[in-house]
């Protein structure tokens, strides 16, 4: 079974530290894939994103997604780190690290994890604009479709 | 039974959580949503577009036809936008 690490935190995420944590002292890993999701400034319009989450369920659900990926691909390690609270443009919202002997498992599992995080992890983004307006970000149909394709391509 | 609300569902209802004791006739999530909507305008506005309401029963995603028998915590929220 893969080493699974999940964290929902309010502090900045460090991609280098996470790669180091996964790979330190290991001779069995042949590939590490990372996905980094960043907060965009939307052409200068956005001041910050506020990420609300469902404490308890968010950790469980993210762990469940990590374990699903580990059950489906030959990956030795999976880390999913997600911010909550206020995130500024340029900061990392989500970090996914997958490790495997061969690259395909690491690539595909990272993409699977992101598609399921979008539709299943209980987080909600609220935009704070530079002009002082606030608005909830609407879910995208494209995210549902991205998740759906994993059900058809086993 | 504890109800917890998130994002615009929480804002429209005007609270983050509450404890309720629904009547016996409320057996499913859909029944619960219908009953909550009778409790006031804020609930009706928050839950009126029921297709946009996602549900978790004791931290597990569930459909509107799921039974709420024995459930301790019901969460109601909009489609998720994490990641």
Notes on the protein architecture:
- The complex is a heterodimer of chains A (154) and B (83).
- By secondary structure, chain A is α+β, with helices and mostly antiparallel strands.
- Chain A is 36% helix and 35% strand.
- Chain A has four helices and eight strands; from the N terminus they run βαββαβββαββα.
- In chain A, the strands form two sheets. Chain A has a four-stranded mixed sheet with strand order 1-4-6-2, with helices on both faces.
- In chain A, β7 and β8 form a beta hairpin.
- In chain A, α2 packs antiparallel against α3 (103-120) and α3 packs across α4 (141-152).
- With 83 residues, chain B is of the alpha+beta class.
- Chain B has a single domain (2-77), classed as Ubiquitin-like (UB roll) (Roll), CATH 3.10.20.
- In chain B, 28% of the residues lie in helices and 23% in strands.
- Chain B is built from three helices and five strands.
- Chain B has a five-stranded mixed sheet.
- In chain B, β3 (54-57) and β4 (60-62) form a beta hairpin.
- In chain B, α1 packs antiparallel against α3 (41-47).
- Chain B is globular, with a radius of gyration of 12 Å.
- The termini of chain B are far apart.
- Chains A and B meet through β3, α2, α3 and β7 of A and loops of B.
How would you summarize this macromolecular structure in one to three sentences?
The complex is a heterodimer of chains A (154) and B (83). Chain A is of the alpha+beta class. Helices cover 36% and strands 35% of the residues of chain A.
């Amino acid at each position: 079974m893969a080493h699974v690490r999940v964290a929902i935190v309010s502090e900045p995420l460090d991609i280098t530290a996470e790669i180091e944590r996964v790979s330190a002292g290991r001779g069995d890993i042949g590939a590490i894939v990372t996905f980094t999701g960043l907060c965009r400034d939307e052409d200068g319009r956005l001041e910050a994103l506020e990420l609300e989450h469902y404490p308890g369920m968010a950790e469980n659900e993210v762990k469940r997604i990590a374990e699903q990926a580990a059950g489906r691909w030959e990956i030795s390690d999976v880390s999913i780190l997600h911010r909550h609270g206020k995130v500024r443009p340029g900061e990392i919202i989500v970090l996914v690290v997958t490790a495997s002997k061969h690259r395909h498992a690491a690539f595909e599992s990272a993409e699977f994890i992101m598609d399921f995080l979008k539709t299943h992890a209980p987080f909600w983004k609220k935009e704070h604009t530079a002009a002082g307006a606030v608005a909830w970000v609407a879910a995208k149909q494209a995210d549902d479709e991205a998740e759906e394709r994993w059900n058809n391509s086993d | 039974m504890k109800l917890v609300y998130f994002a615009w569902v929480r804002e429209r209802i005007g609270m983050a959580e509450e404890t309720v004791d629904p009547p016996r006739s409320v057996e499913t999530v859909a029944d619960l949503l219908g009953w909550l909507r009778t409790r006031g305008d804020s609930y009706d506005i928050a839950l009126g577009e029921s297709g946009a309401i996602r549900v978790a029963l004791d931290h597990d995603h569930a459909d509107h036809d799921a039974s709420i028998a024995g459930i301790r915590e019901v969460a109601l929220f909009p489609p998720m936008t994490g990641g």
